[in-house]
Amino acid sequence: MGYSNQRFDVNLSILFTELPLLERPAAAAAACFSAVELWWPWIETPTPEQAELDALKKALDDAGTQLVGLNFYAGALPGPDRGALSIPGEESDRFRANIEVAADFAASVGCKALNALYGNRVEGADPQVQDTLALENLVLAARAADRVGAILLVETLNKPESPLYPLVSAPAAIEVIDKVNAATGLGNAKFLLDIYHLSMNGENVSEVIEAYADKTGHVQIADNPGRGAPGTGSLPLEELLDQLTKAGYDGWVGLEYKAPDAAASFAWLPAEARAAS
User: Which residues are the active-site residues?
Assistant: First the structure.
C-alpha cells in the first residue's frame, strides 16, 4: 500500500508560511494538492470581520482546495499558547466567542473537522477547575461541530515541546474524548492522532494505533527527530500509515511538518498521489 493509498492534506499554518495566508491555497494547488488544513489563522482575534472570512473562503475556492481541518481559536499559535479552552477568564471567553464563528466558517467551506486545543496549565489555577472548564467548553464545541456536520478533534501534544500542556499521552486525550461524548451523547468527539507528537512522547505509535484507530478522526505526520518531511528522520511513517489503513482509518493525513522550502519538501510523495480523490 504505502503513501499512494493515503489522502494527504497540507497544513498551511506550518508550510508555505513565507507567503501571505491568502496565497497559500494556490501554492498548495500548484504543488498538486487538493486538500489543506489550518490552525486558527487570526491569532489576534477569535471573531474576525466577515470580510476576512470571506476572503479566505474565496482563496480556498479559487485555488480549488478543500479545507479538511480547522483549529478553533487557540491563542498565540505558533507561540507560547497551546489552546484557550481550559484557561479561566478572558481566554476561555475568547474561545467561546469563537465557537460559532469557526463552526459557521467550516460549514461555509465544507470542512468536516474542527480541532480544539486544550490549553496549558496556568500557574496558580486549580487543575481540576481547568479540567471542569475544559469539559464545559468542549461540550459546547462538540455541539457546534455537530450542528454543521463536523467532528470535534482533541489532540495529544508532546511534553518536551509543550511542558505545560496536560494531554501529553494518547490515553490522556482519549479520556477527555470519552468524557465529552458521554456528556453530549453525540459521539462526534474524536482523537487527533499526531504521529510526531506521540513519538516525541516516547509512546509506541504502533500500539496507540492498535488501541485507538477506531476513535481517530484525523491524523497528522512529521518525521522525528526534527519535525521535518518524511524521510528526514527515522520514523517508519509509511508502515504506520499502512497500519492505520488496515485498522480501518480512511480519513485525512495532514502534513504538519517544517520545511524551509515547502514545494521542494514534497519530493517524497509522487505528484499523482497528492491530489485527493
Answer: 155, 256
228 to each of 49, 114, 201, 210, 237, how far by Cα in Å?
Answer: 34, 24, 17, 25, 12
SS (H, E, C) 140-155: HHHHHHHHCCCEEEEE
- Extract long-range pairs of 241-247: CB within 8 Å, 24+ residues apart: 241/2, 241/3, 241/5, 241/6, 242/1, 242/2, 242/5, 243/206, 243/209, 243/210, 244/193, 244/209, 244/213, 244/216, 244/219, 245/1, 245/5, 245/6, 247/209, 247/210, 247/213, 247/214
Residue that has been written with the C-alpha cell 472548564 in this structure: 133
Q: Does 277 score more than 80 pLDDT?
A: no
Q: Which letter, b or e, does each residue of 86-113 get, where b requires 16 or more Cβ atoms within 10 Å of its Cβ?
A: bbeeebbebbbebbebbbebbbbbebbb
Q: Other C-beta atoms within 10 Å of 185: how many?
A: 8
Count of positions (residues) in the chain: 277
For 44-90, the DSSP string reads: T-SS--HHHHHHHHHHHHHHTPEEEEEEPP-SSTTTT-SBSTTSTTH
| 217: enclosing H helix or E strand | strand 216-221
22-53 as b/e, with b when 16 or more CB fall inside 10 Å?
A: bebbbbbbebebbbbbbbbbbbeebebeeeeb
Mean pLDDT of the region 162-178:
98
Q: Report residue 65 CA to chain centroid gap.
A: 17
Q: What is the pLDDT of residues 173-192, one digit of tens each?
A: 999 999 999 999 999 999 99
